[in-house]
Amino acid sequence: MIDPNIVFAGLSDVFTLTNLLYILIGVTVGQIVGATPGLSIIMALAIAIPLTFSLDALTAIAFLISVNKGGTVGGAVPSILINVPGTPESAATALDGHPMAKKGKPLKAMKYSLYYSFFGDISSDIVLILVSAPLALIALKMGPVEITALMIFAFTIISGLVGDSIIKGLIAATFGILLALVGLDPGISSERLTFGQLELYEGLHLTALSIGSLAMAEIVHSIVHSRKDDGPAESIVIKTGSRADSTVTIAELLANKFVAIRAFVIGTLIGAIPGLGSTTAGFLSYSITKQSAKDPESFGTGDPRGIAATETANSAVVGANLIPLLTLGIPGNIAAALLVSALVIQGVQPGPLLFQEQGRLIYGMFGAMLIANFANLFVGQFGMRFWAFVVSAPKTVIYPGAMILCVTGTYVVDGGIFAVWVMLGATVMGYFMRAFGFSIVAFIVAFILTPQLEQNVLKARLITNDNPMALFSHPIALALLALAIASIIYLGPKKKADAAL
After folding, report:
1. Exposed/middle/buried for 253, CB within 10 Å: 0-12, 13-18, 19+?
2. SS3 for 184?
C-alpha cells in the first residue's frame, strides 16, 4: 500500500516555479512541433532527451511528458488547416476537421479538437493514476521466470502489431537484442562484441541510437522523398467571422458526450496494450462512431462527432501507454520507450519496484501530467492563430535545424565524437529499416528491454537449475509463453492478409 504522505509529497513537488515553467515550455514546444509538417513528436522527444541531462529527475520527466502531450494537440492543426497531419495520430482528425475548416469554421474545428483532446488526455491520466499502483503490486508477485515469459510475450505482441509483418518485426527485435548485448556480460563481466573498442565496453548508448534511428532517419527519409518544388502547403486563412463559426459552446460539446466517452474508453484500452498507438485508436474510434451513427453519410463533411471520436481517442492513449511501463517496465510505444531512456539517465529503473523505490517521483510525475493537460488547454487556446503560421514553415529551415540539434544533443550527452558516429550509423540503419518495412518500434523496445530480460533469464536459470521441465511449476509463465506462440500464429497470417488488401 502506498503511503499517503508519499503521494502528497510527490504531488506537492510539482508546484515549483522551475517545474511549472518547464511544463509550460514543454507543452509549447510540443504544440509547435506537432503543428509543423515534416517534424514528429518522436523526433522532438529524441532531440529533447539530451536537454534534460542536467535537470532534476522530476523536472526532466515533466518536460518530456509535456512535449508529448503538446504534440498530440498541435498535430491536429495542419490536419484541419491544410489536410496534412502534423503527426500520424492526427490523420483521422483531417477526415472531418478539414471539411469543417473549408466551410469557413477553422477556429471552431481547432477548438473542438483542443477541448476533446483535453478531455481524453486528462481522463486517461486519471485512469493511469488509479490503476497503476495496484497493478504494480500484482506485478511484484511475479518472479524472474514469469517476467521472462512476459517479456517474450511483449516482444511477439509488439512485433506482430507494428510493421509490415510479424517476421520483419521479430527480425527487428532480434537485431535490437543483438546490439544491446554489446559491452560486458552481466554474469561474468567478459567483453562481448566490442571488437577491441574501449568505447563499447559500456555498450551502445541509447540516446545516440534512438536519436539516429528515430529522429535523424526520419529527417533523411523526408529529405530523400521531398521534391525540389515542394513548398509550404496552401492553408486556410483564419478570419474572424460570426461568433458561432469561431466558438464552441458547452452545449455543443455536451451534444457529443457519449461519442467522447466511448472514444476515451477505446483510447485507454488501446494505450494500455503494448505495440498499439494513437493512430490505431483514432481510426478505430472514428470507424466505430461512424458505423454506429444513424446518419453515417454526414461523416467526412465536417461533422463534429468525427473530431470528437478521433481527438479524444488519440489523446487518451498518451496517459494509458504509461500503464505497462510503470507496472511492468515494458514501454507501450516509442514515446514511452524514450521516456525509459530519460528515466535511466536519471538513475531510475522502470518496473513494478518503481512505486516502492521512487514513489515520490512517480506521484510527482502524475501531478505534472495533470498540470500539463491544463497548460495544453491554455497554450492551445491562445496559440491557435500562431500555429497557423507555423504550418507554413519552410522545410529548408526545419530540417537543417533539426539535424544540428540531433548531432549536438548526441555529442553533449554521450560524451564525444564516437557517440556521433554511432548516431550516424543508427541513422543509416533506421533509414533502411523504414525503407524495407522493418519495425523501428520493435527494434528500440527490444534494445531497451534486453538488459532487464538478460538479468531475469540468468535468475530464472538459477531458479529452475536449467531444467525446462521446471516450467510446469510456473503456470503463469507457461500461460504467457502459450499466448506468445498464439500471437505469432494469429498475427502472422493476419498481417499477410492486411498486406494483400
Report:
1. middle
2. strand
- Residues with Cβ within 8 Å of 126's Cβ and at least 6 positions away in sequence, in order, are none
In the three-class reduction of DSSP (H, G, I as helix; E, B as strand; rest coil), residue 334 is classed as helix
| Distance from chain centroid for Cα 105 | 30
Give residue 22's pLDDT band: very low, low, confident or very high (50, 70, 90): very high
Buried b (16+ CB within 10 A) or exposed e, 209-239: bbbbbbbbbbbbebeeeeeeeeeeeebbebe
pLDDT higher than 60, residue 212: yes
DSSP 348: -
Q: What does the block give as the cell for 135?
A: 497493478
From the list 486, 474, 219, 163, the residue with the least C-alpha distance to 334 is 163
CA distance 84 to 111: 18
- Across the chain, how many H-helices and E-strands are there? 23, 2
Smallest Cα–Cα separation from 171: which of 445, 438, 431?
438
- Is residue 499 classed exposed, middle or buried when 0-12, 13-18 and 19+ CB atoms within 10 A define those classes? exposed
CA distance 383 to 36: 14
Q: Identify whether the C-beta of residue 61 lies closer than 8 Å to the C-beta of residue 339.
A: yes
DSSP line for 60-102: HHHHHHHHHHHHHHHTHHHHHHTS--SSGGGTTTHHHHHHHHH
109-167 per-position pLDDT tens digit: 888 888 999 999 999 889 888 888 777 777 667 778 877 887 787 777 777 666 567 78
pLDDT at residue number 500: 41
Candidate ranges 55-69, 81-95, 160-174, 476-490; pick with highest mean pLDDT: 55-69
Average pLDDT, stretch 11-30?
Answer: 90
For residues 54 and 95, is the Cβ–Cβ distance under 8 A?
no
Question: Residue 302 contacts by C-beta under 8 Å, 6 or more apart in sequence?
Answer: 96, 99, 100, 101, 102, 103, 105, 109
**Region of residue 450 (left: phi > 0; alpha: psi -120 to 50; beta: else):** alpha
Q: N- to C-terminal Cα distance for the chain?
A: 50
Percent of the chain past pLDDT 90, that is, above it, reads: 6
Find out whether 68 and 30 touch, Cβ atoms under 8 Å. yes
Identify the pLDDT of residue 478. Answer: 87
Q: Which residues pair with 7 in a beta bridge?
A: none
Residue 394, pLDDT above cutoff 50: yes
More confident residue, 12 or 46: 12
User: For 147, left (φ over 0), alpha (ψ -120 to 50), or beta?
Assistant: alpha
Does residue 251 register a pLDDT over 80?
yes
pTM listed for this prediction: 0.73
